[in-house]
Automatic annotation (TrEMBL):
Alphabetical list of Pfam families matching this protein: Glycos_transf_2 (PF00535)
Keywords in alphabetical order: Glycosyltransferase, Transferase
GO terms for MF: hexosyltransferase activity
Ranges for domain Glycosyltransferase 2-like: 17-127
Gene3D superfamilies in UniProt: Spore Coat Polysaccharide Biosynthesis Protein SpsA, Chain A (3.90.550.10)
EC number per UniProt: 2.4.-.-
Protein's recorded name: Glycosyltransferase, group 2 family protein
Natural source organism: Segatella baroniae F0067
């Protein structure tokens, strides 16, 4: 296996802690996730693989025996993904941390590019692209640095925490809200960007995510839909409260993020319920928190079209018919 220097730009020992929450996924998929890390141009001293088993019905350890000397395996009571990630952060010792869902994997060429950015620049964070296309090309560009607030003011934030390679001292200064089943990434990544001074970003498609019907984000039963929407509103409310405590630059950045999450919330109400009644209830819910009408901003074309459509009955009817 090819390796790089163990020292980063500032002379500090370079190591990435890969944190993998695991709960009942097929072990063949988990092994593929681990193998993708081992294919990276990182020496054993430069990587730390932490699997946090969130109380699976059957431990995957027997199927991971070939990796036993390369892993840190922790088994805990089932408390959800957020608790598993938090536990992984407490154990992590790397200069950087990288979250990976157990049913996903890293794309070596593209992710190695992200590692090289971190090594060369000592970046607080490297943001990269996820993909569900195994045949994705490898755009190995580099942009930045910008502050996290500047990034949020200019771009839509990738909600998934798995799209970021981040310094442990920053990532572990925050924790995931364990009472949230959904939208915990939206809260965590937003707060993380607000505390980040130097972000480098690349279009490299370094993270492959599987579309699995059994995964949490693809649950379609009524209670899961309600919980997902309620969690989204709770995160929006928390971020709104946070914005009142921030200086102007950070507050402006958070304003865009809250507006985007509010749009996403209404979009998901339409997509999950296909109900005009539920859409009106959701709009009234946002109004109670001063979040509707959506701000008259031109953040993205999608945002502008969606914002304008919500102003009329005809526009709402169009959205209800078009979004599936």
């Amino acid at each position: 296996m090819q390796t790089e220097s163990v020292l980063s730009q500032n002379g500090e020992s370079f190591k990435v802690s890969f944190i993998i929450p695991y709960y009942n996924e097929p072990t063949t998929i988990l092994k593929e996730c681990v193998e993708s890390i081992l294919k990276l141009r990182l020496s054993p001293e430069e990587r730390e693989i932490i699997i946090v088993d969130d109380g699976s019905d059957i431990s995957p350890l027997d199927d991971l025996m070939e990796f036993q000397d390369l892993l840190i395996y922790i088994r805990c009571k089932n408390k959800g993904t957020s608790a598993a990630r938090n536990l992984g952060m407490k154990v992590a010792s790397g200069k950087y941390i990288q979250f990976i869902d157990a049913d996903d994997y890293l794309i070596p060429v593209a992710y190695d590019h992200c590692v090289q950015i971190a090594k060369r620049t000592d970046a607080d964070m490297v943001r990269f692209e996820p993909t569900d296309n195994e045949a994705s090309d490898y755009a190995l560009d580099m942009n930045g640095p910008v502050s996290g607030s500047e990034y949020m003011k200019s771009f839509n934030l990738k909600a998934s925490v798995c799209s970021y390679l981040v310094k442990r001292v920053l990532g572990c200064s925050l924790f995931f809200s364990e009472e949230l089943t959904y939208a915990e990434d939206e809260e965590y990544t937003t707060k993380l960007l607000l505390s980040t001074k130097e972000v480098y970003y690349t279009e490299a498609k370094a993270y492959y995510y599987r579309q699995r019907n059994g995964s949490l984000t693809h649950k379609t039963d009524k209670m899961s839909k309600i919980q997902r929407l309620n969690n989204s509103v709770e995160v929006i409310r928390r971020l709104c409260d946070l914005s009142t405590t921030l200086p102007n630059v950070e507050s402006e950045a958070l304003e865009r993020r809250v507006a985007q999450l509010s749009m996403d919330y209404l979009y998901n109400v339409i997509r999950l319920t296909h109900s005009g009644k539920h859409l009106e209830q959701a709009i009234n819910n946002l109004k109670e928190h001063g979040l509707f009408p959506l701000p008259e901003k031109n953040y993205t074309t999608k945002y502008v079209v969606f914002r304008k459509a919500l102003k009329s009955k005809l526009g709402k009817a169009f959205l209800l018919a078009a979004i599936r």
